[in-house]
Amino acid sequence: MDDVYSNFDLVLKAFWLTIQLAVLSGIVSMVLGTVLAAMRVGPVRVLQIAASTYVTLVRNTPLLLVCVFIFFAAPNLGLLVGTPFLVKGVIAVSFYTSAFVAEALRSGINAVSLGQAEAARAIGMTFGQNMRFVVLPQAFRAAVPPLASTLIAMTKNTSVVAVFGLLEATARMRYFVNRNGDDTLAIFAVFAIGYIVLVELISLVAVTFERRWRVAR
């Protein structure tokens, strides 16, 4: 454990990279997932099929394969050449997580009373205005628990990019374990506590938002 304590700055840097990856991927996933959910419930049949196909394929594809495509296949095809590893990691995790965000939001949209959407159309709102001002605000409230679970899973999934050279928390833990085999359990405990703190922070934010929305209602 002396190696960990004497190089604790490396631990902090690793978790800082994990936080960056999780926050950026969370933002991109929420935006892309919202667009996909809107496409799936929208009136344009082609967009419905495209979004449904995307969600179905991505949800049934391991994140590891998505990372392999982003980090190796895409550059060989002339895409993402010279892109920083962090950006590639964000793209891979966001591409994967957005499908789950879309499904969580779609469940929230289905929880909104159909009469409210019909009333919005009756007063002349377009589909976009209906989603923006009527449906999505309520859908987000209803979808807070599944969205929180999705973001927690995403935070843990960031460990997959360690395989591709991004020195986030999991990769750094493996680095210390390889150097200090006798302290494996203690090193694991240190990094496990770090992940627990991150997960609890996400849960706390989700609970806070849910309580505020309940008061606002």
SSE topology string: HHHHHHHHHH
Number of helices: 10
Decide which structural class fits the backbone: mainly alpha
**What's the Cα radius of gyration?**
20 Å
Number of strands: 0
Terminal CA distance reads: 51 Å
Mean pLDDT: 84
Low-confidence stretches: none
Q: Strand percentage, roughly? A: under 5%
Tell me the major beta sheet: none
Overall morphology: globular
Q: What is the helical fraction, as a range of percent?
A: over 70%
Protein model, in words:
The protein is an all-alpha fold. The chain has helices at about 1-5, 10-40, 45-60, 65-75, 85-110, 115-120, 125-140, 145-155, 170-180, 185-215. The longest helix has about 35 residues, at about 10-40. It is globular. The protein starts with a helix and ends with a helix. The relative contact order is 0.15.
Layout of SSEs?
Elements: H1 2-6, H2 8-41, H3 45-59, H4 63-76, H5 85-110, H6 114-122, H7 127-142, H8 144-157, H9 169-179, H10 184-216
Short précis:
This protein has helices spanning 2-6, 8-41, 45-59, 63-76, 85-110, 114-122, 127-142, 144-157, 169-179, 184-216. With 217 residues, the protein is mainly α.
